[in-house]
């Protein structure tokens, strides 16, 4: 009887100590790891949210850039970090949903080694085409591609990247036969589409829009299921006859596996409060991002898993072998 009482007392004391620790969290600066270089959109989102969340949590937030392997080095670092809520990663779609299907060397399992906290933004892509083919609408593109199989070309920033797989999705759902021209970066691929060396590409709205407004490119459709806030005049692919086409790049926060549910929930709540802050939203939208929050960490986890399977199937369809 005494032994049971001591065990119960010990458990109660442990719970009390843990509750006090969670209540006082955070007691020191938090690090946001970003798997991309300074100046990228992911880095900019991390700094904007770090400033806002830091104010709400009463601690400074440090952004640490760990670029490499398409953003996966940063995720790998956080997957191995101490699960105490002080090292988080702001990940894009690729490290969590695409890279595990493309790279053999990854040292983490995106569905097992991290605790999802919440989504922060959603980056729509726009399908743009050069002027040489005189194709001015999405319907005209579909009609032309079907009438001239194997003639049209499309650029991407590399095999297995978002821009490549979006076009694979479009080709698959529309029954199109087009030629993939991979590049090593967005600057040259965009330049060659503008110059007419390649016919089209999927690019981010914020990157492509200046060229659309200047008359250098035709914008045919956005890749998500609602019109982009920065480009409300460009219709969606779904509006133009292809149902359930809702593909883009999301950003969201993750902690190491084993981080306490209380800390995860506190971070989730703070993130959503920042996303609802008018000034913070304004800054994020200016980057070309759509501000999107998750109802709960569990809802975000389900979205990540669903996207993991969708992108994985696209990688298989594209015939991409693991590197």
Automatic annotation (TrEMBL):
Keywords: Signal. The keyword Signal applies. SUPFAM superfamilies: Periplasmic binding protein-like II. Residues 1-23 form the signal peptide. InterPro entries: BUG, Bug_dom1. Belongs to the UPF0065 (bug) family. This is Tripartite tricarboxylate transporter substrate binding protein. It comes from Advenella mandrilli. The lineage of its organism: Bacteria, Pseudomonadati, Pseudomonadota, Betaproteobacteria, Burkholderiales.
């Amino acid at each position: 009887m005494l032994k049971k009482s001591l065990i119960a007392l010990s458990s109660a004391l442990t719970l009390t100590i843990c509750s006090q620790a969670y209540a006082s969290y955070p007691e020191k600066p938090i690090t946001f790891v970003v798997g991309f270089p300074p100046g990228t959109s992911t880095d900019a989102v991390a700094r904007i949210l770090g400033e806002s969340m830091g104010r709400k949590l009463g601690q400074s937030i440090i952004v640490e850039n760990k670029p490499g392997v398409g953003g996966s080095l940063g995720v790998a670092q956080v997957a191995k970090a101490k699960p105490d809520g002080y090292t988080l990663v702001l990940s894009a779609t690729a490290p969590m949903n695409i890279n595990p299907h493309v790279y053999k060397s990854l040292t983490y399992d995106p569905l097992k080694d991290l605790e999802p906290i919440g989504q922060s933004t959603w980056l729509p892509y726009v399908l743009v085409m050069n002027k040489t083919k005189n194709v001015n609408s999405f319907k005209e593109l579909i009609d032309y591609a079907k009438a001239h199989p194997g003639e049209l070309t499309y650029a991407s920033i590399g095999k297995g990247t978002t821009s490549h797989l979006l076009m694979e999705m479009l080709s698959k759902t529309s029954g199109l036969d087009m030629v993939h021209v991979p590049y090593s970066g967005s600057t040259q691929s965009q330049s060659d589409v503008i110059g007419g060396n390649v016919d089209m590409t999927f690019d981010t709205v914020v990157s492509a829009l200046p060229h659309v407004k200047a008359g250098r490119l035709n914008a045919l459709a956005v890749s998500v299921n609602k019109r982009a806030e920065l480009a409300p005049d460009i219709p969606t692919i779904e509006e133009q006859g292809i149902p359930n086409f809702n593909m883009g790049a999301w950003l969201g926060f993750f902690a190491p596996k084993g981080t306490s549910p209380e800390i995860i929930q506190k971070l989730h709540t703070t993130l959503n409060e920042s996303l609802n802050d008018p000034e913070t939203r304004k800054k994020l939208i200016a980057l070309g991002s759509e501000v999107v929050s998750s109802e709960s960490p569990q809802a975000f986890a389900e979205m990540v898993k669903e996207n993991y399977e969708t992108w994985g199937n696209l990688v298989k369809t594209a015939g991409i072998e693991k590197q």
